[in-house]
Amino acid sequence: MINKQGRESVSRLSRVGKMWSAALARIRSLLHTDAGAVALAKEEERKARERVRKQRKRAESRVRGQNDDVRGRVRGHSDVSADASADPPHTPPKNLSLSGAHGARISENWEPDKKTRDEATKLFGNDTERIASEFDDFRDHYLGEPGQKGLRLDWNAEARRWLRRSAKWDREHPKLPLGGKLELIERGQKRKPSSPEAAPKVTSGYYASAVSQQLAEWDRYARATRGKTMPRDKAGGWWVESEWPPDFTVAQRSASG
């Protein structure tokens, strides 16, 4: 017969056994769960490596295709260059220099083309000396221009602009004869006043040169009537209404003559 103490010991051992059984079951459950997680992680890693491998393969395929296209274009360009090299080399005209995007410098042996010569004849008539002088001045001017100022894309077009500016200057600045009187040139042109204090607006007049007695008398007259002398142009003279001012007497004219 098992006494009370023995029964308690058996009961304790039974309870401990149940506890160990539960603990072992828990451990087995945990071990099973961890193994599944490890296996799942390994599977995901394998799939990721496979995706990376496929992406790398597709990228390499695209690069190979692009390289093939480039090689094809280079091969075709080489064939065209080889065909072009069979033609005789192109020699640029002597009037042109090697030019870039900003133009070229004028050459020392530059000569105008027919269109430019015709423009010169249209502007200056048969004055061959004047035309030759204009072209020489044009060439020498741009040969001396430094840097970008000496570059043009079309030197004949620039020469035609030069000729038109020169002809315009002639029209706006008529040359004076030795007598000093106004010579109305092309198309009855009249001198335009150069400032608000210009000479009287008349259809004809007299040019009093810088050191003439006429200008001195007009200065005297202007001081007496306006309190200041006559204006001056770049040459030092000025256009006035007549050779002598209104208060200049006949006797004085005779004496000055």
Describe this structure in words.
This protein has 257 residues and is mainly α. Among the domains are: 114-172, no CATH class; 186-256, no CATH class. The chain is 58% helix and 2% strand. The protein is built from six helices and two strands, in the order H-H-H-H-E-H-E-H. The chain has helices at 4-85, 114-124, 128-143, 155-172, 213-226, 250-256, and strands spanning 206-208, 238-240. The chain has a two-stranded antiparallel sheet. Helix 2 (114-124) packs parallel to helix 4. It is elongated, with a radius of gyration of 53 Å.
Topology:
Layout: H1 4-85, H2 114-124, H3 128-143, H4 155-172, E1 206-208, H5 213-226, E2 238-240, H6 250-256
Antiparallel strand pairs: 1-2
Helix pairs in contact: 2-4
Short key terms for the protein model shown above:
two-stranded antiparallel ribbon; 6 helices; elongated; mainly alpha; 257 residues; 2 strands; single chain
Question: Averaged pLDDT, please?
Answer: 74
- Helix fraction, binned, reads 55-70%
Tell me the fraction of residues in β-strands, as a range: under 5%
Read across the widest sheet, the strand sequence of neighbours is: 1-2
**If you compute it from the alpha carbons, what radius of gyration comes out, rounded to the nearest whole angstrom?**
53 Å
The SSE order reads HHHHEHEH
Oligomer: single chain
User: How many β-strand stretches?
Assistant: 2
N- to C-terminal separation? Answer: 180 Å
Helical segment tally?
Answer: 6
Please mark out the parts with pLDDT under 50 across 5 or more consecutive residues, or reply none: 94-98, 177-203
